[in-house]
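Re: the multi-chain job from yesterday

Posting the exact lines I submitted so nobody has to dig through the queue logs.
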Amino acid sequence: MTKKLVIFDLDDTLIDNIGSWPRILKLIDQRAQKKLGLPPGKLLKLHKKYMIQARQEPKSLRVDGVGYYVWSRAAHELKLTPEETHDLLSWWFDFLPQVIKSSPGAKDLLKTLKKKKIKIAIVSSGGFHNKFLKLKTAKLLPFIDLLLPTGFFSQDKPSPDPYRYTLNYFHLQPQDALVIGDHYEHDLTPALDLGMNVVYFESNRHGPPPPDITIPSIKKLSDLLKHI
Ligand SMILES: [Mg+2]
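And the result, structure tokens for all chains:
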């Protein structure tokens, strides 16, 4: 089969995220001790508390609003001034470049796809700034034809809307595209529903597809080329 477009989900496929969250939160907590005079671990506790609350409000909270909600609620509980709150909201992005790296083989794979004149799109859960910074830090940005964070839509994956939008953007049909993701339910089921081919990228974070589902899976990004 010849594909004209490959869609990646980004986190834990092209980007190696393993351990990045605890590292970034630790850096933020250290800065909070220095700048806000908080005791060690205080901001981590608040982050955890409001992440749990954010997950309990999936209907009212868009995926790109989770970070904003969590840090704003923490700032309110700490009675921070608007200026301090503004600083706190930017810390995640300050530290993100220190903890992000590309997955092994990601750059070579994207280079090969470009040589084959295959379009490359990122359809990833979250907001634009976060995803842009990750791609820029990992030096993958020059290969990307479309960066489409799902915060653009009222519903996150597994809604098929982001994939539909991507196909329309490139004026392509479902059979022209291949979707690769590490989360079966979120990344791959909407693609299968639309009639796109998929490849599962094996990950420890989300677990494999259900045992009765037969789809190609890969362990190394370079193996993706066998499916294009
Ligand atoms: Mg992922």
